[in-house]
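Let us work through a complete example step by step.
Step 1: write down the sequence.
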Amino acid sequence: MRIALIADTHGWLDPRIESALVDADHVVHAGDIGSNVSEALDALGVPTILVAGNADAASSQLALTARLDLPGGTLGVVHGHRWRAQNRHAMIRAEFADARAVVYGHSHRRTDDGQTWPWIINPGAAGKTRAYGGPSAALLTVEPSEWRLDWRIFEPRAKKR
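Step 2: predict the structure and record it as tokens.
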């Protein structure tokens, strides 16, 4: 099973990221979605999980956290804006202590922190806002005995002059 992990689109999903999502069995968006992105994800026809980020409208009906039961464990989903950067991973681990892995966004910086349980993943920004080193997504391949992460990182978009 393949789970596409994205975050921080802020209303614009990079088309290169979008094309990388179509082969996934699920898409998980870890917040700061913005307008029109959920519709673009729906059009892919892939089951999608979305959580609210700090830039999403307060009137949003999105939950702040989600859990996806998968072969071999649970994937937690949160945006990450409720915790300071210095202790964010520890706080996420405490909130999702029973998960095998947790995906979060907010910092726009790719992270693969497997130092301790649960595994913490930030796919970086899948839009054009602060996509450090280029827009990115992560593809989590899930099997009962093994979970693997593959990165999809694209060249930064040329700046308009």
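Step 3: interpret the result. The longest helix spans residues 88-95.
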